[in-house]
Amino acid sequence: MFILNYLSHYFIAETQGVLNNLFNPFESYTLPLDEWVNNLVNFLVDNFRHIFQAISLPISGTLEIVKSTFLAIPPLIFLIIIALLVWQLAGKKIAIYSFIALIIIGFCGAWEAAMVSLSLILTAVIFCMLVGIPLGIICAVSDRFNRVLRPLLDAMQTLPTFVYLVPVVMLFGIGEVSGIIATFVFAVPPLIRLTNLGIRQVSPEAVEAALAFGSTRQQVLLEVQIPLALPTILAGTNQAILLALSMSVVTSMIGVEGLGQMVLQGLGRLNVGLAAVGGLGIVLIAVMLDRITQGVSQGSIQSWQERGPIGWLRSLGLSKRDKATLGISIVFALLVGVTGWQLMSQTNIKSTEDPLPGKGIVVRPTAGLETYGTFITEIVDIGLEKLGYEVKGQKQLNVPAMHIAVSNGDVDFTGTHWEAGHQEFFDNNGGEEKLERLGTLISNSSMGYQIDKKTADEYNITDLSQLQDPEIAQLFDSDGDGLANLIGCTAGWMCEREINHHLQIYGLEDTVEQIQGNYSALLADTLVRYRQGKPILFFAWKPHWFASVLREGEDVEWLNVPFTSLVGTMENFTEKDTLWHDKNLGFPIDNVRILANKKFLETNPVAQRLFEQIEISIEDVNLQQEKVKNGENKPIDIRRHAEEWVVSHQGLFDSWLEVAKS
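Now predict its structure.
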């Protein structure tokens, strides 16, 4: 009997296992697609990155010409040129709108960012037209080519842009070129499709008539089909322009400057006003470009010689000599204005008897998206400038992109590398072979879990494990699912995995859930809930401007964890490493250091010695973050904060420079 029972249970268990595998085969085998993609990208980066860098040269060259031209023209002259050009192309009403829109952008303090965005869009659209229109024509004349290209266009239009941002950065480098390529992938498909559609929709009777009069196939295409399809092709160009502009914010995440970066900075600092200025600029430019392209595609009854400023000049009845004189005078006045602007913009650099060690060397820094990182990196930049280096503007990058950029040599250093927290990024991007950590910009940086002081005192909550109690956990339930909402961090950060591990190891999976998303956006909701008097539970770290909004001991309290348990590159840390003011925060107390490209350090020992000296107290960083909280959060404000810090620590700062020069 015992044997029969055993056999029956055995066969039932075996049958259930077979049925589970039959009805849910995905549990028994999973394709390692992620590993295949990683291996492919790494192979391309290791063996063919120089080829992709060469491909980017015409893009970067075109962009540099367009951007330098836009920024070289004084705003007033640029407004006049745009107004006249749009009047000629699209009519007086659209010209007036364009003039007013750009004036609004200028008075909002976003002129330079708008010019950068315009140059990026124009460059992207130029390459979209150079590639998209010929491919659309080939699709129209070849059904086989059209069938082959269609799935690729479907993939380009439906693939989320974030999927190909990282491989694009790894292959082409950080910054504008990668942004243009990502924009191209997103914006070119409609132009190809509409070019194809426009040519295919040309009346067969018109084609037959041209052939009947002896035209060749090439003549029919160039002189009949393309001219008749031009409105549809221009509609495709219009779509490409608008899609390119919509990528402004996305590409700002990989260091692309312009209006999109203003939006990203506003989001990162909960500065709705800054984000609104960038967003308004994008909207105004989008409407302007849309109306211009629509006006061009719809055409006009009048010929180009009879409309716009050219038609107005012709209507004056001037002689040819007077017209030539007027035209030359206008061009001469514009050239004088541009030349004068350039002379006024130049900075006279006084020569010194002792040449500075960094003279003639360009340094490219990067900082994270947080204001504390911009501040401490600005102090490093000032030191480099005092040593004669020409320091480019900081690239605002997220943590993964920042490490990729330093490793690949797209930038030279970052001032926001957390020694313990970013160890995995350090290892995955070449480690000690490509990178070197120097100095300690900020010591004793902390991270952990915080709750509002009111709830902590009322319910005597001091330890994270107390959230095992469903009644305690429901205090922090903001979405009504019965689980406490722990505001976590941005996906991909090291804290994401550690928080999930803590929920598991501390037995909180049934009562607490981590809310993931953009960290700054999540903090916005946290702040609103706090001001409404509701309980809050969130992952926090210092230095961070949010610590100046909700102060430790006054507004919020750190929570203990039952014991230290970490994973990945931090698994060897013990309670001694995670203890902060007699509280076990669960995360190691960290140091923020400079991370530099090793090749850059080998050729710039003076900069290396400077990096090794600089250290800024966390108290000074917290004071600066207080200013950020009070509204001084624009790049020009943070630069001023850095200059003020240098002045107030002049003796210490000068000693760093002396050591660097020695």
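The chain is about 65% helix and 10% strand.
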